[in-house]
Amino acid sequence: MDLLLLGDEQESMVDRYLERGELFVLDDRGIKAVCVVTDEGDGVCEIKNLAVVPEAQRRGYGSRMVEYVVARYAEHYSLLLVGTGETPGTIGFYRSCGFEYSHRIENFFTDHYDHPIVEEGVRLSDMVYLRRKLR
Prior knowledge:
The protein has about 140 residues and is an alpha+beta fold. The chain has 5 helices and 8 strands. Strand 1 (about 20-25) and strand 2 form a beta hairpin.
């Protein structure tokens, strides 16, 4: 749970998708990353959580996890979504993994979290969705 809380810092929010999703763990001489993917219906799956242990960040583990998810889901799904905060580092990471802008949900973080969420010095408000075609 500690690693999942790096990707989504409120446990009640993690609980909302953890039981209905698939949890993947990247182990490279110890756990380096985790990812939770859910089936959203109509050929769409979604990365709900992707987290890399701090000491292993910027070493390709996040990208490898995304590519694993893409390969695993491409046969049965046509679209992979990810919702995230609007920060340059996170948006840049997903764009480098082949994602493009899809849509946004205004005030998601302020409406659904019991405390302010701050990433890269930015207080998050809207959830930005990115998409990647799988086939």
